[in-house]
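Section 5: illustrative case.
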């Protein structure tokens, strides 16, 4: 967790609070006041989701030290001055990850889950019941451990709760059996809630909320709670404060002053907004830590592991997502992932590939009427999505795909729009896999939006005029380009529609020249015809 992000030691593979806080070369960003607030909540059975490599495991390690009363580790931190119960009345803590129960088969999953419970019994020094069914063993453990505790209560911290389910997303029959066992397993926590002082479950997604969590309807979700929007991750203020010397060192190494270095860091790693009720945004902690340690700004998140779940979902969908820069969503979409349908927006948001860009408020008395616009949080994620993921999904070698995108970027930067339209755009459409059928005008536009945003052109979709909506508009400092798409018709017909409906009228007469561009997708060729390009 980012209360304890460390800079001058390796940031990968170090998830133990004690190891970090006792390292003399480490730098610690103190957020123990937020952890105190989390634990002091009236509700003591909580859930928090965050993207991978965002410090969830380290957060649990810190909570464990707090509840065990390890005050020596917290000297000088905010919680040391607060009336924390753990200083006077430590409580036994049992912390484990469900990643240890991710067998490739249902039978192996059962074996590993039983092994996990046997380990908990050994740790607590309580008799192992010998039951074959892991949920029953788990309940015996909870009762025995609480009875043995000096406070007659225990703390339970569960990391990566969703890992066992993710293994079986392509095998619905096994998935349902696994979910049934996990439902029973987690339900024991609810049944024994009187013996549990504090429970926190964490994970990346909410894949199983509707089923697994139905047995735990008392669990309170703090994932989007405004109070904890900055609990995991670095804020811009923390770059100014605790991390300032590290930012200055990175800037010095790259010929930048502090302000320039901070701006570059925020562009690369900031932008994650975890609550629609707060404008606070945070940096990816692992990526920022790696950048400060290495003194170099680049994509680090992808090198720490890839979300194969998302890649597989896109492959099965047989098409690319909608415009990644303006993805519409509502509260329900962000809150739940159904394991059978796996809504793309939910996966990308919960996985950290999209974040809340804008909030469109509905009825102030009904939060569920709010609407959101999602977008990639920063340059690092944007590049990962547009290059690595999509090139892999489309079956291209990364270098080949990057060559296409880089050529298009150069053409746009130099004002060579004809080169972009007649060469690069044609090549990008040609890269669509043969078994991915562009069936209508909407899908043809979707690919254009994606390809163009990869180049940094950032087209605006569906721009309103008095008589309708232009399919896309690209504005640069020197030009305005108005696009219309057709499917199995002609590029000239697209130009006529732009003129007839006045799509370009609002820009005509301004300082920048306006160009009309008509594009027709020809399904027989599986590509676009030669675009029509005319001055307004």
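Designed sequence:
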């Amino acid at each position: 967790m980012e209360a304890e992000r460390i800079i001058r030691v390796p940031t990968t593979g170090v998830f133990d609070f004690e190891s970090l806080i006792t390292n003399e070369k480490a730098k610690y960003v103190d957020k123990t006041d937020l952890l105190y607030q989390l634990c002091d909540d009236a509700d003591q059975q909580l859930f928090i989701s965050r993207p991978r490599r965002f410090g969830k495991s380290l957060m649990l390690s810190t909570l464990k030290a707090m509840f065990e009363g390890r005050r020596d580790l917290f000297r000088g931190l905010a919680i040391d001055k607060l009336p924390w119960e753990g200083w006077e009345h430590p409580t036994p803590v049992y912390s484990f990850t469900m990643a240890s129960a991710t067998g490739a088969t249902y039978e192996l999953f059962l074996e590993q889950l039983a092994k996990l419970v046997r380990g908990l019994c050994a740790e607590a020094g309580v008799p192992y019941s010998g039951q074959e069914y892991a949920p029953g063993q788990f309940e015996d453990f909870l009762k025995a451990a609480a009875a043995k505790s000096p406070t007659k209560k225990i703390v339970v911290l569960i990391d990566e709760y969703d890992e066992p389910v993710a293994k079986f997303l392509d095998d619905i029959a096994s998935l349902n059996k696994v979910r049934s066992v996990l439902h029973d397993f987690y339900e024991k926590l609810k049944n024994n809630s009187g013996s549990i002082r504090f429970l926190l479950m964490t994970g990346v997604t909410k894949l199983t909320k509707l089923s697994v969590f139905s047995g735990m309807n008392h669990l309170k979700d703090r994932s989007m709670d405004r109070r904890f929007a900055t609990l995991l991750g670095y804020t811009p203020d923390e770059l100014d404060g605790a991390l300032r010397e590290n930012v200055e060192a990175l800037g010095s190494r790259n010929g930048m002053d502090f302000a320039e270095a901070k701006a570059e860091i925020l562009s690369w790693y900031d932008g994650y907004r975890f609550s629609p009720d707060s404008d606070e945004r945070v940096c990816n902690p692992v990526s920022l830590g790696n950048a400060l340690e290495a003194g170099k700004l680049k994509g680090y998140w992808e090198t720490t592991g890839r979300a194969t779940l998302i890649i597989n979902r896109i492959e099965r969908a047989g098409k690319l997502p909608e415009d990644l820069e303006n993805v519409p969503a509502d509260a329900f979409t962000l809150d739940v992932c159904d394991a059978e349908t796996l809504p793309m927006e939910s996966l990308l948001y919960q996985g950290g590939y999209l974040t809340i860009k804008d909030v469109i408020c509905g009825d102030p008395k009904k939060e569920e009427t709010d609407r959101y616009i999602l977008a990639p949080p920063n340059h690092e994620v944007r590049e990962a999505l547009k290059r690595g993921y999509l090139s892999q999904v489309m079956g291209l070698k990364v270098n080949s795909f990057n060559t296409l995108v880089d050529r298009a970027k150069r053409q746009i930067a130099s004002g060579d729009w004809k080169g972009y339209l007649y060469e690069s755009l044609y090549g990008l459409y040609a890269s669509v896999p043969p078994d991915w059928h562009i069936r209508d005008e909407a899908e043809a536009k979707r690919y254009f939006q994606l390809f163009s945003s990869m180049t940094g052109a950032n087209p605006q979709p569906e721009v309103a005029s008095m008589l309708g909506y232009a399919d896309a508009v690209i504005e640069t400092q020197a030009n305005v380009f108005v696009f219309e798409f057709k499917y199995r018709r002609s590029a000239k017909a697209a130009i006529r529609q732009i003129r007839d409906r006045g799509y370009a009228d609002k820009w005509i007469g301004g300082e920048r020249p306006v160009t009309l561009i008509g594009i027709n997708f020809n399904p027989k060729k599986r590509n676009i015809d030669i675009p029509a390009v005319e001055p307004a």
